[in-house]
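Q: Structure tokens for this one, please.
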Amino acid sequence: MAFLAVKIMANILLTGGRAPVTLDLARAFHRAGHSVFMAESLRGHLSQPSTAIMKDFVTPAPRQETEAFLSSLKWIIEENQIELLIPTCEEIFHVAKGLENLPCRVFAEPLDRLDIFHNKWKFANSARDRGLLVPETMLIENESALLDAFRRWDGLALKPIYSRFASRTLILPALREALATLSFDRAWIAQEFVQGQQFCSYSVCQQGRVVAHAVYPAKFTAGQGAAIAFQAVEHEKIFHWVQAFVNYFNVTGQIAFDFIESPDGEVYALECNPRATSGVHLLTSNPRFVESFFHSNTGCVKPALTSPRMLGTAMLVYGLPIAIKQKRLGLWLKTFLHGSDVIWDIRDPLPFFLQWQSILAYLALGMKRKISALEASTFDIEWNGE
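A: Here is the predicted structure, written as tokens:
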């Protein structure tokens, strides 16, 4: 891929404006002097009222209307002289289907490469084949394989090979629960359960080099998987794991991993998300972060903040009940009182005050489809290997 030269006023197109990370990216690019455009299929999405957005476009649904979505993106790029398109959520897979026909640089890998990262079975195999630590993993496509997994390990975790937010993950299930829950119309993986501390990483990569990087422990989550409070930590082993993986695949784009650090200090990668994740929030205050999307000669950009950041609403809705149940109210209070909300910005307050619009949309869709609000938030953008 040819590199885009940094200019004072580049035209940037972001997709996935419903996500807090996308809002944070838009604000960062805007502060750096770039013109930020947004394309999103959800009306009234979180980023829409932001003053960082020069123009917001409503697109067809990437998952249900892929061809129309790609045509819409092409028109937006041509009409607004877009120089760099940055997909941020799972619409990246649908963008990748039309990569060759989009008339600008797209900060994403081709679809076949993204699938290796996103598919939990392919990811575990590709990492292990490169000598990188992952938990022992089995493909589960029928009841016989499931029984074999339970015979093999004392404790395990079960996940669909395509999923997000750990919304269907079973941690240390009994065999009876697993048999009652799994439907074999889709493939699952079983992984040996590794006890330890969970960490998340997020990186920006240019031609096989990690050029921006953040690591944070997953202390509070929405459901089982989506972190809602973020505090940067240095973790050399995780950085070296990520750099080795990125170097082997010569990655250009955003990539994130979930890790478990075992009591003996080894780090095991659980899964990969080849898109923006909440580590963005720890990097946007560093003025060099935006440069990492354009070139690789700035060294590795690290978080500038030491204080925690959080999704305040999610900390109240999800974090507080869990903290009370798990007797971690003291840690929750410390995080909540000292953390800064990633959506609130006194210079750009409307996304904070109008965030209820997208929350209500997720709740309504969740009730209609009989899925959680978290699952509803990706209903029209997610990709499950189609």
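A few notes: Confidence is low (pLDDT under 50) at residues 1-7. DSSP finds 13 helices and 18 strands in the chain.
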